[in-house]
TrEMBL record:
InterPro entries: AB_hydrolase_fold, Esterase-like, Mycobacterial_A85_antigen, TPR-like_helical_dom_sf. Signal peptide: none annotated. This is Esterase. Pfam families: Esterase. It comes from Winogradskyella pelagia.
Amino acid sequence: MRKTILIVFIFLLSIPICAQISYKEIKSSRLNTTRQLKIKLPKNYDPSSEVRYPLIIVFDGDYLFEPVAGQVDFQTYFDDMPGSIIVGIVQGNERRWDGYCDQVTGLPKESGLRFHEFVADELIPYLDDRYSTSKFRVAVGHDLMGNFINSYLFKKDPLFKAYVSISPDLSGTVRDYLGQRLEFFKDDIFYYMATADNDLPYIREAVLNANNQIAQVKNQYLTYYFDDFKNDNHYTLVSSAIARSFDKIFELYKPLREKELEEKVLTYGGTLDKYLVDRYDRIEELFGITKLITEEEIQKVVLVANQRNDLESLEKIGKLAKKLDPTSLLGTYYLAQHAEQIGKIKKAKKLYESTVDLNDVAHIDRKFILSKIEELSVTELDEEIEEDEDN
């Protein structure tokens, strides 16, 4: 039932996609011809803005572009991945020649090499010059082109950060040494590969062998995901592979979820403000985009701090929240809680009182704050009376 609902939802999202796609032509000196591109920009894309977007290059754009665009719409709707610039290369009858590779090396030669250079030397600069692209690039290919995109891994400086190789027709050196190649990277690389139980037998065998190689690789810079889908064939696995690959590649980008809170935040060795800051610095470093820490995520981390009885984290999260948005009462509210819990009643009262002039936060009740001020006023008075009696 859930799968049916998701399929219907994706279909509804995909209805306006065609209206959002633009078609461009790019002249290529490498190919000595003009190639057509399908381009879909993120919702609310503003060329004058400083916001940058990951670039997804879809090989086999004739039939893969729309499934990729639909999945990006779906995942960005739930903020599971950033808005991205999607570009499909229309290959048509040239596909076989575009993906032409040496049988021994498995790497592009002749017409395949010219197409390889077209993408690297003409298409990417063309897109970077005209659109607000970030440094994070994703290559998506199926079958012949699933093998072809691996050729960029064998360059000294890989053109892409992430590779989605769907049921690739692996051959030659690429087939035999893909795992070894992935051992040598000293910068972040994401690699996703998929097959299915009803895949073409010769492709499935090569993919399973390649997976055995890559699974043995111990490289802290490599993030590898593999799927072997059940009850799918060479073509029906495509939609599942696209969904899974983006879900995994952009996992860090997702909002804080229960699993991360339990497995990473709760057990974190330092103060939890540092966990949040480091997490979002990592998103910017990796994807080349700035994502702001949300109030909802701050609230989740505060709950974990309370669970850990971690007063130091509570104070530092309060300071972080205040720095991120001085007009919101959120940071001051947590600082007031911290002061109250360490017994600094006067300070806590003043902090609670100062929240009255700040902007509301949905989960914090003003009546509760006023009741806290009244409660602390009574406590403060009682303490003064006790001090007078002691004197």
